[in-house]
């Protein structure tokens, strides 16, 4: 829970940062009708409050040759969840996201350069449990009204 309520300016700043986290403080200030120093102070305050945790980049995986995109649901065997987490931390496979959704269930978002990579990944994680593989046919993008 946010320690202090966010006002409309805070929300506008957050929306602009979500659109472009590399925006200059001068440009951000113009968009939210503040000076660049006031915008910088607000962003720093949002960071101090824990509202803004990090700035990130979304990479275009196909540009790097990762043109095959699959989602996996992994149900780990009893006592294998921590071993699987260690595997995820150490693997060379291109795992974009891995979420633990239940005690022994993980949702994995991974990209591959070739279909053989999908098979290799499935074989590599087989010792930890069983998986359901879902090829991604298309990413459906949507802009939430709050993000506009």
Could you characterize the architecture of this molecule?
The structure is a single chain. The protein is of the alpha+beta class and 148 residues long. The chain folds into two domains: 8-48, Arc Repressor Mutant, subunit A (Orthogonal Bundle); 61-135, Alpha-Beta Plaits. The chain has five helices and four strands. The protein has helices at residues 8-19, 25-31, 36-48, 81-90, 115-125; strands at residues 68-76, 94-102, 105-112, 129-135. The protein has a four-stranded antiparallel sheet. Helix 2 crosses helix 3 (36-48). It is elongated, with a radius of gyration of 20 Å. The protein starts with 7 loop residues before the first helix and ends in a 13-residue tail after the last strand. The model has no long low-confidence stretch (mean pLDDT 91).
